[in-house]
Each structure stands twice: as C-alpha cells, then as structure tokens.
Amino acid sequence: MNTLTPWDLTGWEFAALAFAALLVGFSKTAVSGANTVSLAVFAAVLPARASTGVLLPILIAGDVLAVLTYRRHAHWPTLWRLFPAVAAGVVVGTVFLLWADDGIVRTSIGAILLLMAGVTVWRRRRADADAEDEPDGVVTRAGRLKARSYGVLGGFTTMVANAGGPVMSMYLLSAGFRKLGFLGTSAFFFLIVNTSKLPFSAGLGLIDADSLLLDAALVLFVVPGALLGKWAVTRINQRLFEQLVIAATVVGGLQLLLR
C-alpha cells in the first residue's frame, strides 16, 4: 500500500492530519458525525484507499475515549438490533474495496460525503418532529425495518469511507435519543464496529507498518480533542457547529470529486 510515513509529509500536510485527528476526538465526545471533515482531510492528503486504513485506528482511539466518558448511557437493545445489518453492510463494503481502485474509492468517498451532508440536513429537520421521550423505535415492525436499512447503509459507508457517523446519527435521533443516550449508544456502536473492521482492513492491505507508524504520530492529538469535546458538549452552539460541519463536508466532497 502506498502509505506515507510521517517523514514523507510536509509540515502543512502533517498539521492538517493532526487537526483532523483532534477533530476525531472532538466529534466522538461532542458532535457525532463531525469527523466527516476528518475523512475529507485524510483523503485529500493521503491516497484515498490508504487514508481509510490510517484513519481507522485513530477513530478507534476516539471511540475508546467516548466509551470511557459515556459508558453508562448506552441503550443495548438498539445496539443488538443494529449489529446484524451492520455486519452485512461491512461485508458488502469489503467486496467493493476488493475491486475498486484509488480513483473509484476517492470518487466514492466524495459522493458519500455529499450524500451524508444531505442526510444530515434532512436529519436536523426531522429530529424535532420525530423525537420521543424514550428510544423505543426499534420495538415496532417499522422500527426494525428502519434499523436494518440504516444498519446496512451504515456498515457499507463505514467500511468504504469510515463515514457511517451521519447515518447512525440520523437513525439514533429519529429513534428518540437525547444527548447522553445518543452519545453513549453511539460510542459503543462505533467502538465495536470499527474494531471488527480491523481484520478486513488488514486483509485488504489498508493497514500495514507504515500506516501504523503514521497513526502512532497522530493518535496523541485525539486526546485533547476528546477532552475539548467533553468540556464543550454542554456549552457549544450545536446548530451553528453542524452548519459549519455540513459546509466543510460539502467542500471536501466536491474537492474529492473534482480531483
């Protein structure tokens, strides 16, 4: 795999990846889905296929910090409903990566980013209308069908582009989750899913010694991002921040599609 080591990067390139790693930590403890910006940065600095392998261990580090912060607030019935469908989506994504070259992956990531930006806008408009006091949307037949649909899409997007955050954010909010329940359930969901992706990514050659060396240099930036997110979660103007995230995601997606 054509992965760059820390010594192959310019100062600006490493600074961009460090900022993206910091944003991963922030997104895991404050605004889930904001790491779509990190995805765009990684795919712009590194080869598109390689970027998914480098980013995965950084995401897992953020997931661990999020679980340690919000572990008491997970809703396990929802997680058990989602996992089988997500596993199917991960398998489909793995098959896609077996034949997709760097150009196809880059274009796919760009398209997924634009799709996720649209999904996020739709989710924000529907969140208030669909919110309930308890996250019980998975117990009905329609709720189970919705969980399976979002699970497959989330598994595919997280395998191909590490971009399952907005899909799961939309699902969890539409199911009626409040802030802490949302963050706790999301934390365990992505820790389990991202960890399960490691053997697939290694088998595809997306994770190797060079990628892990770059991860070792970048993972330290996840910690201050997570701490900043924990501090900001009750203070941040989330509506304005999500608007900025959507705008940055659209720009990143267009940049990848036009490269």
Largest sheet: none
Number of strands: 0
Radius of gyration: 17 Å
Using the alpha-carbon principal axes, give the shape: globular
Q: In what range is the share of β-strand residues?
A: under 5%
User: Which quaternary structure do these chains form?
Assistant: single chain
Helical segment tally?
11
As residue ranges, the low-confidence spans are none
Span of the ends, CA to CA: 20 Å
Class inferred from helices and paired strands: mainly alpha
Q: What is the arithmetic mean of pLDDT? A: 82
Order of helices and strands: HHHHHHHHHHH
How much helical structure, as a percent, in the residues?
over 70%
Task: Explain this structure.
The protein is an all-alpha fold and 259 residues long. The chain is built from eleven helices and no strands. The model has no long low-confidence stretch (mean pLDDT 82).
Quick structural gist:
The chain has 259 residues and is mostly helical. 78% of the residues lie in helices and 0% in strands. It contains eleven helices and no strands.
Features:
about 260 residues, about 0% strand, mainly alpha
List the helices and strands and how they pair.
Elements: H1 11-29, H2 36-45, H3 48-70, H4 76-99, H5 102-130, H6 141-161, H7 165-174, H8 179-203, H9 209-218, H10 222-232, H11 238-258
